[in-house]
Amino acid sequence: MNPYALQVKDLSATAGSFKLQEINFSLKKGRIMGLIGKNGAGKTTMIKSILRQNPTTEGEVLFNGLPLLGNEEPVKRKLGIVYDQLIYPPGMKPKKLVKIFAPFYDREAYIARFDTLMQRFQLDPNKKLVHYSKGMQMKFSVVMALAHNPDLVIMDEPTAGLDPVARVELLDCLLEHMQDEEKSLIFSTHITSDLEKVADDLTFIDEGKIIFNEEKDALLDRFTLVSIDKSEMRDSIKKALWGVKESSFGFTGLVENKDMLRDISGVKTQRPTIEDLMIYSGRKGGEENV
Amino acid sequence: MFKQFTAFQKMLFYSIQGPEANMKQGIVLYIFIFIMIFSLTLTGFNMAMVLSPIVSFSLIYNIVNSKKRIYDLAPVSSKYALVNIHLFQPIAAVIIHIMFSISTLIFAGVILLIVLISDGTIESGGPEVVPVSESSISFEGVMFIILLYALFWFGSTAIALIKNDRLRVGALIGGAVAIVGSIRMIDSILPTARAAQNISFLHRFSEASHASEILLGLGLLTLLVIPLSIKASRKIYNT
């Protein structure tokens, strides 16, 4: 049995002047991958390219060992997608929309699961989508993505526009869905605190390239957030630091090997958060990190 | 099976997005619709006959280039999706034709009612009655319109599927020029052209002595274009 829910090999694509370059990663079954990166880093382009929605895409993408091309039916049956904006017609009522999708799945199970999810998110199926708030529309997109009980869910900024209570509800719902060890999830977001709670793996993308793709805890253990007094800063330390930022108190950055700072006074270290990784890991020693 | 088919057709319909989503594409499409309808009706084509295929094409053009393609979420093979995309056009054309005919009848009825109410009487004789033998279109005329529709249907769907914006617009303009140009050329060689402005293109075509030769040429072209456009559509769709 294939242990991977998703394998991406040498994926490249262009979107206008933006280039996605040689993306390689794998997602094991039963795991949640957080996809992080600043605005315009290439998260949405990457998701669209994985789903073959970008005509310039090159490379290989395997869903449970199958390429999408030629296997659309089995792959899409086990795939749930949440886009960064509502793609369903705003003038439609959810109860009508679910009837359109139901014939493609086990009708009764699909409608029952849809109803359960709608109730869970307190969404009115008789209300037109245009009358939903932005947060409710996003919740509805999540309902549609989960209604057919997919094995792999790909979400592009699902928590954007949601208030903290709704975000917790959504994360709980996703964790519940993930109770089955065969289920996997890719979750792109700016709200890194959400990933602290749910992600197993982290993929950081910047300027169309993957900076790292590792297990979250191993990654957070590998790096140390360091603050150094101005008087103690040396060129050798500066070169070893990722994303050095200077303030009136001194310098702050990430370091992979904290042992090199052992004998230096005026150094404070702490475990970084995912947000720290995002902020500091783009550059190393003042140069582009590739 | 039928439920899935109707559901997929609905998904296609609900993937239509407003012109505000892609202003440039919307403007190009409106210009295309206007030029095609204007040119063809000027040649003597019935408005309902021209309106339905062109509007249905503009719908499928919008759908396959929409950023909200909900039909992409359905778990179906690309072959099934492509067959449905091709079938959407004739189905939409029939519905538009019926809707146009009904609304024309209602409009005519309302006008007649207004005249009746304001005058109180209908003038004797009424509208001129055209004998059936004079108004009917011959087999050649029917075949001409069927072949033209088939060519337009398959060719235009392949054009709509082109993913590169510039290439698609170029093909759209090229296709429009080819259709309008060919019809104008055929029109110019029809015996009653220009002389009888009130006679439709198809009536004049029906009466033309070399209609069979034109039909043969059009038939051969259709036989060539249909398999080519199916092959091109599959290749473009799967890219």
Question: Total number of β-strand segments of chain A?
Answer: 16
Order of helices and strands of chain B: HHHHHHHHH
Kindly estimate the percentage of residues of chain B that lie in beta strands according to DSSP: under 5%
The N- and C-terminal alpha carbons of chain A lie at a distance of: 34 Å
Structure commentary:
The complex is a heterodimer of chains A (290) and B (239). With 290 residues, chain A is α/β, with parallel strands linked by helices. Chain A is built from ten helices and 16 strands. Chain A is elongated, with a radius of gyration of 21 Å. By secondary structure, chain B is mainly alpha-helical. Chain B contains nine helices and no strands. Chain B has helices at 2-13, 23-43, 47-64, 78-119, 132-135, 139-161, 165-189, 201-207, 211-238. In chain B, helix 3 packs parallel to helix 6 and helix 6 (139-161) packs antiparallel against helix 7 (165-189). Chain B starts with a helix and ends with a helix. In chain B, 27% of the residues are buried. Chain A binds chain B through residues 53, 55, 69-70, 72-77, 81, 87-89, 92, 99-105, 144, 148, and chain B through 3-4, 7, 10-11, 14, 67-70, 72-78, 80-81, 163-164, 238-239.
